[in-house]
Fold this protein.
Amino acid sequence: MDTKIILLIEDNLSDIELTKRAFEKSRISNKLVVAEDGQEALDYLFGKGDLLPAVILLDLKMPKMDGLEVLRHLRANERTKRLPVVVLTSSSEQQDLIESYNLGANSYIRKPVDFKKFAEAIRQLGLYWLVLNEPPPIE
């Protein structure tokens, strides 16, 4: 069994379901952990020695704590500063794109509206981040 975990940080229930369906369609069987807001994500990541995810899919527009603030916390912490973070958002604001990269995002993807395109984007994400990418060692 593959132990690589995917952490999806997303508050929109429809987008969570679409992402789960896209993973199933793409035959990505890795465990998908969902945090519905930024604070829940940080609680998971900085909890009691849980296995860190292989990749984080991060939405930007969320209540309590937005994705950019989550990214700030991740990059400021020794344990999580090198975790691959893919911003997966519907935001088309240029400033969000710039700020995401300034804060250390590894990739920025705008969510396609069409499910087939979204499923293909998820398939490619899974192939790259879970199979091809060689992550840095965890200290």
User: Anything to note?
Assistant: The radius of gyration is 14 Å. The chain has a mean pLDDT of 89. The CA atoms of residues 75 and 101 lie 12 Å apart.
